[in-house]
Amino acid sequence: MLISGTVGLPLLPMRGLLALARTIQQQAEQELTSPAALRRRLEAVEREYGDESDPRAARRKAEEMENALGAIVKPAPVVSVSGTDSADDDGADAAGDR
Questions:
Q1: Overall pTM surpassing 0.85 (yes/no)
Q2: 8 A C-beta contact, residue 64 and residue 42
Q3: How many CB atoms lie within 10 A of CB 45?
Q4: How many CB atoms lie within 10 A of CB 83?
C-alpha cells in the first residue's frame, strides 16, 4: 500500500486534470443539448436581428438547431468493409494446382 501510494503520487496532478476535463466536457454537452440553452440562443438570434423575415436570422436559427441536433444525435462510426484479398485467391489457386 505504501509503495503503490508513493508510486502513484506523481500521477495525481494528471488524474486531477483528467477529472476536470471530463467535468468541462459534460458541462459543454449539457449546454449544447439543453432545451433551455437552445431557447436562449434562439432568443439571442431574434434580439440580434429583430425581424423574423431577415434571411440571416433564419440561417442562424437553422445553424443553432443543427448544432443542437448534432450534439444529441452523434453519427455512427464508419467501419470499412474490405473484400477478399486477391493475393489470397492467387495463393489458393496455386495450392490447388499442386
A1: no
A2: yes
A3: 19
A4: 5
Torsion angle, alpha carbons of 56, 57, 61, 62, to 10: -30
Contact predicate 5/44, CB 8 Å: no
> What does the pLDDT look like over 11-69, one tens digit per residue?
888 889 999 999 999 998 888 788 898 899 889 988 888 767 788 888 888 888 888 87
The angle formed by the CA atoms of residues 82, 86 and 92, to the nearest 5 degrees, is 120
Label residue 91 exposed, middle or buried (CB < 10 Å: 0-12, 13-18, 19+): exposed
Task: Locate all alpha helices (DSSP H) within 1-98, ordered by sequence.
Answer: 2-8, 12-33, 35-49, 55-72, 86-97
Note whether 45 and 57 are within 8 A (CB). yes
CA neighbours closer than 13 Å in the CB half-sphere of residue 46: 7
